[in-house]
Amino acid sequence: MSPRQSAGPAYVLLSDNIRDDCRRQRASLASISADRPVGPSDPHLSRTKRGTSMKIASPRRRTGEIRVALTGANGGFGRTFLAQLRSTPDIRATALIDPDVDGTVAMLADLGITAFEIADAPSSAHAAAASGETALLSSLEAIDWDSVDVLVEATGNVPAGTAYSEAALDHGTHVVMISKEVDTAVGAALAARAAETGLSYLPGDGDQPANLLRLLDWISAVGLDIVAVGKSSEYDLVFDPESSTVTQNGECVPVADFAALLALGEDVPATLERRARALSDLKRRAAADACEMTVVSQRVGMPADVPEMHYPVARPSELADIYSAREDGGVRSHDGIVDVFSALRLPNEASFAGGVFAIVRAEDPATWDTLRGKGHVVSRSGTLAAIYWPYHLMGVETPLSIYAAVDGTPSRAPRPTTMMAARAQRRLAAGTDLIVAGHHHEIAGVDPVMITPAEGTAAYYVLSGTTLRRDIAEGEVISVDDVDGIDRRVLELNQSVQDV
């Protein structure tokens, strides 16, 4: 038995596309002479009003255009995506769909975009696209699918996002899925349907799931053995030693003697428990985190270590120690898990920015001792290392997914090996409405949990807009039969691919 086998189950993920990407990039770079002077006349650079732009020509650029429709256009993601399209002239938004057309118009004005027409039917949407303008639409029925190559689905609404995605696939249009809520509920069914017709169904780069999957592509291509993967929660915990406070997204709590907890210490679980207790007044868990990790879990087969995930309060330099096995002083009960941590930092330190990470085995001690000396995060035992990307740039990165969709780049297909379910925080009375609301798209009174799919259990976001038909006890997981008003098409797609 090899050393890798004896260390535990190996999670060396197969990469279908990273090597091809590397070959294309090497070929592109080889075409640029190493001694060619770089300056304003360089054809690989461009000119702007401010002078020479260091925008290096990308091998992904097209001579023809890719036509994109964006749903949920008047949102935070939509703004970042449309702003970035000004730098990718080969990708053009031919349709923006949002019920709030006036809000979309205001957003476009703020971006300085004036070439648009409000359309209320496919014919007028087609005319706008044909004239080089963007059609602003309020509904699915007005989309001209002949003017769209890729749908970027960003409504965050499961019934609406499902309908848009099914319509796109019906019309031979690729789907880039930004709405993680839709993906956890019906993504496996949509991906299977896309595959049957030779279309692409991909999570969108710029959000954590796609970024983490891209990091795992890189890790799998170099052959590292993975024991844990995950992300930080959306907002850092910023400790100010001068005021003895910790601030998270504008909410500030006093934390006496917290400075003593900055070091992880020898007893890692004890330190993590003390940190969590000191910050118990802050809401650190979010449905969005469980949703994003479910998207990843369904594509790589790694479950959560515990249904609610660990959520350690951690500094990035501690990740390799914290995600060591329990018998080695860490929190992990087995190999191959997904998790979320709350990033702890001082006011003058860089943010983890909701980034993503992987914990890998440090199989050659000499190599990883050298890398530790260069500042890489290696566990105190020298057996594990953390590799991380401290960013997720929302729509700025999404053009990568659009290129991949059109190219037919192979991607990991979701399988319902994990589901995000809803567990009652307290007793819920019959007649209670379950409404997804707020920035993190949460249902009041229930906790998101990541569990193995079970017959009859309702996926968290399938419950949106339903009403309880019976009392639910504290700690009980809500089932499909416990509610009225469920969207039948969403339920049908969700249950069509469940592994029971």
Description:
With about 500 residues, this protein is an alpha/beta fold. Helices cover about 30% and strands about 20% of the residues. It is built from 14 helices and 25 strands. Strands 10, 11, 12, 13, 14, 15, 16, 17 and 18 form a nine-stranded mixed β-sheet that branches. Strand 8, helix 7 and strand 9 form a beta-alpha-beta unit. The longest helix is centred in the middle third of the chain and has 17 residues. The N terminus is likely disordered.
Lay out the secondary structure:
Layout: H1 3-6, H2 18-30, E1 46-48, E2 51-53, E3 66-71, H3 76-85, E4 91-97, H4 101-111, E5 116-118, H5 122-130, E6 134-137, E7 150-153, H6 158-170, E8 174-177, H7 180-196, E9 201-203, H8 208-222, E10 226-232, E11 237-240, E12 245-248, E13 251-254, H9 268-278, H10 287-300, E14 313-314, H11 319-322, E15 337-345, E16 356-361, H12 365-373, E17 377-378, E18 384-389, H13 399-407, E19 419-424, E20 433-434, E21 436-437, E22 442-443, E23 446-451, E24 466-468, E25 483-484, H14 488-496
Helix pairs in contact: 6-7, 7-10, 7-14, 8-10
Q: Which descriptor suits the 3D outline?
A: globular
**Stretches with pLDDT under 50, minimum 5 residues:** 1-8, 25-47
Strand content: 15-25%
Helix tally equals 14
The largest β sheet comes out as:
9 strands, mixed
* Rounded Rg: 24 Å
The chain-level structural class is: alpha/beta
Distance between the termini: 34 Å
Number of DSSP strands? 25
- Estimate the helix proportion, in percent: 25-40%
Give the integer mean of the pLDDT values.
Answer: 90
